[in-house]
Structures are given as C-alpha cells and as structure tokens.
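Why does residue order matter? Because the sequence determines the fold. Keep that principle in mind as you read this record.
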Amino acid sequence: MAELYLRKVILDIIPERGEGKQIEDLRIRFRCEKTNESNPNGSKIEIFNLAPTTRSMVEGKNTRVKLQIGYLGVPQKSSTGLNVTGTKGNVEGVFVGNVTKAVHKVEGGEKPDIITTLEVADGGNRFRNARLDKGYPPNTNLQQVYDDLIQELGLGKGAIKGIPDKQYSNGLTLSGLVRDHLDTLSKANKLEWSIQDETLQIIPQQEGATTSFVDLNPDTGLIGSPSKTDKGVEFNSLIQPKLRPGALVKLTSRFVTGTFKVRKVVHEGDSHQGDFLSKCEATK
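Structure:
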C-alpha cells in the first residue's frame, strides 16, 4: 500500500476559556467517521505523551478540538509506483467538535507511553440542547422557518440550498428540539441535513453540496478499484480531507468510472506509521 511521505497531523485544543494549545510533533492516531445523517459525526483521537497541563486542558468542560491532516509535500515513489507530490503546508481541517470523553492510560514496557484518548462529537452540544418553540401565522414561508431553526441551532452555515419556495397557508406551530424539527421538515421536502465541522449543511437528497468535485484516480490517490454496491460504490484513497459527506467525487478506474455523491467517509491514520486512508461510501 502506498504511503505518503512526510504526512502531517495537527491537533488544536480549544478550551472554553483561556489560551489553547496546538499539538503537531507528538504521535497522534485518529479515526474520524462522517456521514450525511443528522446524528453528530464522531471521532476518536489518541495523543501520545501529552504534558500534564495539556492532559488537564482536554478534560475541561466544553473543550473543543480541531484535527488537521495532510502532507508536507516532498515527492516520493511508492511501492505501487504512485508519484506523490504536494505543496508545503498542504494541511486541511478534517474534524472539529466537542470533547465528550477523555481517558489517559499507560502502555508499554521499559519506556511506557501515556496515551490520551479523546472521544469527540461534531456540534454535539448544540445538537442535544437547541430548541425552538414558536407559532407561525398563516402564509409563513418555509424559508423563514428554516432561518429560525438555523439561528437557534447556533452553528455556522455550510452548504444550504434547495429549500422549496412554499408557504403554510394555515400557519405552523413548532415546539421541541431543533434537531427533531429539522428531521421532520427535511424528510417532507426531500432534503438531507447534517452537521459538518460545526456548520449546518442542508442539501437536496439527490444533489451534491457544491457543483465542484474531487477528481480521484490512481494518479491522485485512489487505491485499488472501487467496489459496486446496491446504493453506489465503496472505495479507498490516500487521505483526502475534501472527501466529506455531500461532496461530489469523480472516480476513474478500470472497472468503475463516473461521478458520485459521498454519503460516508472514514478518515483513519497515524502521524508516525501505518495506514493514512480515506474510506468512502458514495451514491450515484
């Protein structure tokens, strides 16, 4: 399997108050799972040998983290013949979220490591707690209802498109959690909503988040050949932060060629050794 030369992993630790900390020289392992579903995306991040003060920081209430991954860009000829070339500083954010659990353990023999394992949820606090209780008069436009839900959710705006131009002639009453309202309205209007890197994404079920696409073939990181499934395809590539739910990907391989919409992606790797992969499921 091809490995990129000079892979880079950076973790920003962002406490609720006070100055944060950036980790970029320690060993970091990660598994980030992102889908187009409304439940928050999750990530497991392991950091080796944090300083005691930083271990305390990640345990703080409402601490957030931002994971960035990529390559420093020195060309290398891999065992598969793939030429990998990038640009210095080619590192992109791949996951942002709230730390929901932090555990420290000691592993190893003569020179043991202290491994801090973080469980992280993307937008989890707002997903759990945001509410909207409001009555709307007759002829309220659906866009207004979505605008209020977006405001109450309190996250940034990602790709938001495809909301039908329709009115509620008899008015509308909403009472409860924002996530439940979004589920009901989106299903009724053939939309899908999700939280991606602390931004709200709302797009039509049959469309991508943008019209641009990730061009993926054996020369740009595709590993092996995609497998056809009942819903579309599954494929692996060298880590590509731009592969995210709702993104369009143009696949070119011996057995599968076409443009697909990413439904699920797992970014998985280790800053120091082993795999450094994006594993995707996509639909036509």
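The chain has four helices and 22 strands.
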